[in-house]
Specification:
Elements lengths: L12 H8 L3 H5 L4 H4 L2 H4 L3 H11 L6 E5 L5 H9 L3 E5 L3 H13 L5 E4 L13 E4 L21 H16 L6 E5 L10 E7 L4 E6 L2
Parallel strand pairs: 1-2, 1-4, 2-3, 4-5
Antiparallel strand pairs: 5-7, 6-7
Helix pairs in contact: 5-6
Length: 208
């Protein structure tokens, strides 16, 4: 059973807004210690999450998918600063459960999470997508999140090709935010709109 020392009945959306105004270290303190150790390499910084979420949330009710959502940090930040709905898909059950529990504790009714491999997910119905190169650990298993799933270089390529194909099939107007992600995964039908955070965050829109 995961223990959250910050988890208490008094937690609410105002407290979450306060954390978002603070540092990443303060925000990451809501997670268990073994999760906090992964933060610098695997969880999106607050400033990046806010920038990407505001770009993706074109209007109220926009549905945004976080591909490989980890412990839900991007979804939680995005849901707190925009009126869009954020769905995270995460294949690791522990991380999925952490995301669900924390989002519910802070009263975020515009988040949801799916415990599934990205291969099984239908991209249609979403108007925005966030990708913080969730597949890269297949190329660098020593810096992976854990040893609970199989990692290999072939999976990196197959996941990237799969996501690229799914994005290509979507209608024009769909938006995409990529952070530390190889550009070959982004279909040529997407136009680069903004290049931020030293080129690490790229904001795209599908034009055809």
């Amino acid at each position: 059973m995961v223990f959250f020392y910050r988890l208490a009945p008094s937690m609410n959306l105002d407290e979450l807004h306060g954390l978002i105004q603070g540092t990443d270290e303060e925000f990451n303190a809501i997670y268990p210690k073994h999760i906090r150790r992964l933060a610098k390499k695997h969880w999106t910084p607050i400033a990046v999450a806010k920038t990407a979420a505001l770009f993706l949330a074109k209007k109220r009710g926009t549905k945004i998918l976080d591909i490989g959502s980890g412990v839900g940090k991007f979804c939680m930040v995005g849901a707190a600063v925009t009126p869009a709905h954020f769905t995270g898909v995460e294949q690791r059950t522990e991380l999925f459960e952490i995301s669900q529990r924390l989002s519910a504790s802070y009263g975020l009714d515009n988040t949801s999470y799916i415990n599934e491999n990205i291969i099984a997910l239908n991209f249609h119905g979403f108007q925005g997508f966030y990708l913080f190169n969730s597949f890269y650990e297949n190329l660098d298993p020593r810096n992976g999140i854990d040893k609970k799933i199989a990692l290999n270089a072939k999976l990196y390529e197959s996941y990237g090709i799969h996501v690229s194909g799914k994005l290509k099939s979507l209608p024009s107007g769909v938006r995409l935010a990529t952070y530390h992600t190889d550009e070959w995964i982004v279909p040529k039908e997407f136009e680069l709109v903004y290049n931020l955070f030293d080129g690490n965050l790229k904001l795209w829109e599908k034009i055809s």
